[in-house]
Amino acid sequence: MIKKLFNNIGPGTLVAAAFIGPGTVTLCTLAGVNFGFNLLWAMLLSIIATIVLQEMAARLGIISQKGLSEVIREEIKWPYLRQFVIVLILAAIVVGNASYEAGNISGGVLGLETILGNTYINIVGYSINGASILVGIIAFVLLYLGNYKVLEKVLVTLVIIMSLSFVITAIITKPNITAIFKGAFVPNFPDKSILTIIGLIGTTVVPYNLFLHASLVKEKWKTKEELSFAKKDTIVSIVLGGLVSMAIIISAAGVQLNTVTNASDLAKGLAPLYGDFSKYFLSFGLFAAGITSAITAPLAAAYVAKGCLGWKEGLKSKKFRLVWIIVLLLGVVFSSLGIKPIEIIKFAQVANGMLLPIVAGILLWIMNKKSVLGNYANSKTQNILGIIILLVTVFLGVKGILKVFNFI
Q: 377 CB contacts (<8 Å, ≥6 apart)?
């Protein structure tokens, strides 16, 4: 029974691993410190939206045995529109992932540095962060193996460590249960919170995860009969991942700090209040979050490039490897040179939140095509849920753009 359960743990866990990265840790930390429990509802909304959209992506992958970007390239018949959408997806996903891979690696580094202290070394007159290189090497080795099962097992283990770390940290802060329920079920828009709300949605309902999930499920499951396994895997993994994100907000809300710029500050803030051991729980969680996202972001970028450009080769092909190597290398370089990733992370999450309506709209359109999915196309209920999510993301995206340009 237990062996069967573990055999059917798969891509959903990788999706959870991808969205609980340093960006999520940082943004949830800032949400908790700045707004207390008031934005827990945004995370709950994000969890529901992620389940609905990721289930669609998984169903598409299993039924069509193709990735989302492959289906988009085949189904958009107008050449100019197809080229525009492909360029938009490549720019947003591949270039976007490269831009905040530094944040993923730096997240793992923050976890190490909280325990090990300063890890900078001098090489040819340059001060380079050795921990960044170490995290990069670990991610490189796992990706270079090109073995889906190995990746899956490593990421599942790291996600369990990460989840336990953050949940224990939240329990240590002894939060007010009534206030948590109020924050989770009563929508509230505190002053100057709109970009944080968009960021929380953007860091949970990650557009590149829709591409990653559709590509990975077909590696795991091949038949329509296995759809139920994929659905359970998606729901359980994302709910657990969402609970971890909420635990981070709760932890941050419980720590009385005036200024927090990243999760490392949260670790330092917990230590004098709740004992030194709490620092280690958070550090292990942050390290695991950094490693998992440092692996999944380049992998997703490579899958998107593969689908958009029509490559037929697998995970071990030179072109596929070249994409993730470039993304990973850029992350290592920016992280090891000490360029602070926090503002980049925040920008990337808000940008994700604004890109989401476009990707969600395209996914909904494809999920209604009988030529692709046959009897497994969206039901009315699935379409209603999808449209509601689309409208909410459009509303928040437009509001966010107006806020960025100071129109509201």
A: 367, 368, 369, 370
Query: What is the DSSP code string of 36-96?
Result: TTTTHHHHHHHHHHHHHHHHHHHHHHHHH-S-HHHHHHHH--SHHHHHHHHHHHIIIIIIH
Report which residue type is found at 276. Answer: D
Q: Which of 248, 97, 95, 96 is nearest to 168 (CA)?
A: 248
| CA–CA distance, 222 with 211 (Å, rounded to integer) | 17
pLDDT digits (tens, 9 = 90+) for 278-287: 667 667 777 7
- Which residue in this structure is represented by tokens 């459009």? 394
| Average pLDDT estimate for 292-301 | 82
Asked if 309 contacts 70 with a C-beta cutoff of 8 angstroms, the reply is no
Nearest partner of 249 among 203, 210, 294, 297, judged by Cα: 203
pTM exceeds 0.70, yes or no: yes
Is residue 108 within 8 Å of 289, Cβ to Cβ?
yes
